[in-house]
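Protein data:
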Amino acid sequence: MIWRDGDVPVATRFDDPYYSLENGLAETRHVFLAGNDLPGRLCPGFSVAELGVGTGLNLLALALEAEAAGVTGVSYVGFEAYPLERAELERALASFEEVSGPAQDLLAQWDSGAFVAQVGPIQAQMIVGDARETLARWGGLADAWFLDGFAPAKNPELWEADLMAEVGAHTAPGGSFATYTAAGDVRRALAAAGFEVERLPGFGRKRHMSVGRKL
């Protein structure tokens, strides 16, 4: 782990930042929330899953949106192979004052070995390990996916066709995904996994992103 521009964490393993250098929270809202039509679809029993928990910023943004919408009973499960230590997490989130409330919930219950936590109105869980193994063993179905691994060119394991097929198999009918990448291999793998894939304008300097609905 190294830090760029003050407190932006960069994974040395993948030489990639955990969130946008421009505005991480704005990126989350543009890509993962709006890309999945959230918070409009949130309702009791709605399930969100994520590949790549990272700093938990996507989870915290989701918690803010659910709270603002007055929706309870939403669950989140994140799959993460290399969880941050608590001190790293705290430093990475310190710049985002807007999420300080749910961030305190997350920090208070964070365990880099896996956790179950109440984060604002969200019942959250992190499953630690290689998602190519842990997702196949997960018994749930997600209504929305945040696909937020490091860039496909640097972290190809988290975008393999077999793993995207598992994403499709663990998506409820009419469920969705959103991701910041528009890489052709990823889009084709998600289409093969049963999604109707669409390319949309990306955030900041990224020209395009991808979204999709389960057919």
